[in-house]
TrEMBL record:
Binding-site residues for substrate, renumbered to this chain: H121
NADP-dependent oxidoreductase domain location: 27-287
Name listed for the protein in its UniProt record: NADP-dependent oxidoreductase domain-containing protein
Active-site positions on this chain: Y60
One GO biological process term: alkaloid biosynthetic process
Keywords attached to this entry: NADP
UniProt superkingdom: Eukaryota
Organism: Gossypium darwinii
A GO term, aspect molecular function: oxidoreductase activity
PANTHER family per the UniProt record, alphabetical: ALDO/KETO REDUCTASE
Residues under site feature: Lowers pKa of active site Tyr: K88
Family: Belongs to the aldo/keto reductase family.
Amino acid sequence: MAQATFTAEDQKIESFRLLSGHTIPAIGLGTWRAGSQADNSVKIAIVEGGYRHIDTAWEYGVQESVGRGVKAAIHAGVERRDLFITSKLWCTELSPERVRPALLNTLQQLQLEYLDLYLIHWPFRLADGASRPPKPGDVQEMDMEGVWREMEGLVKDKLVRDVGVCNFTLKKMNKLLGFTETMPSVCQMEMHPGWRNDKMLEACKQNGIHVTAYSPLGSQEGGRDLIHDETVDRIAKKLNKTPGQVLVKWAIQRGTSVIPKSNNPDRIKENIKVFGWELPQEDFQALCNIPDQKRVLHGEQLFVNKNAGPLRSVADVWDHED
Ligand code: NDP
Ligand code: 1BO
């Protein structure tokens, strides 16, 4: 259930309660492909936009820049304890002995003492220097239980407040839930009106696991241009909102937090102005009915080797559940 909180600019920002009892702000700034501008975008988002949630990952190569942006925001008067910073454990580090060093490296890059949320980025272990697409031997066996125990240890040692996963299937989630001592608080998945992924959202809700929707605008280069989708555009015009705001609001009304990426100061501020109004039910439903449901981030380049496997197709990546 969304709760109300207030930011420095007195804009009402909703948040969701996690299984741990902590809260996650409903909107965060995405930083994939933010490049060297990440520091400026993060600072603007927090100080001028009122964001309190930043999503990053070691794999994005921007953690040092994100850290500088966070530091600048703290210097401008925002308290660390009011921020929610997420990062992710990359696939090459998915063996038990590598988990803690990877997290410590991420904290060092971000110049932080703890993370609010640490996520397994993808549930596949890659060899160091794996190519894209992977060559034979690049996708390796993984000890998920051993990795999860290490994630739990990070929570016990207060290096991380919550742990979770990304890009899981029902099969992988059920397996994980069979041995967790600390539950995953969050499952981060691709979700937008072009890929609703209802069944994963429902399964997470049933287990009390909060979902964060990634690529909520349809992602970037090679993605799906939902900003110019005719249904999104019609609803935006009718409500006197922008397409970006309609897409972000749709995600929040589904009960997910959402992490749109932007490096443009105006769009950063635009994307968070989604409180104090609702999508009418008919418009919410029209967005749910957008046809041609398909993923943008299917993982083929990262994980599929058609000849050598072990993942020989995109369907293998998603356990044949789509
Ligand atoms: P988004 O769906 O957030 O779309 C970002 C694109 O939309 C950028 O090109 C941006 O350009 C543009 N944009 C932003 N706001 C607007 C607007 N209001 N109007 C028009 N265009 C706009 O894509 P991402 O794939 O980056 O997803 C968001 C975040 O989710 C990532 O940055 C990352 O943090 C996370 N993520 C996590 C994954 C995982 O595996 N866990 C996978 C993918 C993403 P500009 O910058 O010029 O504004
Ligand atoms: C390769 C990383 C995908 C975005 O999280």
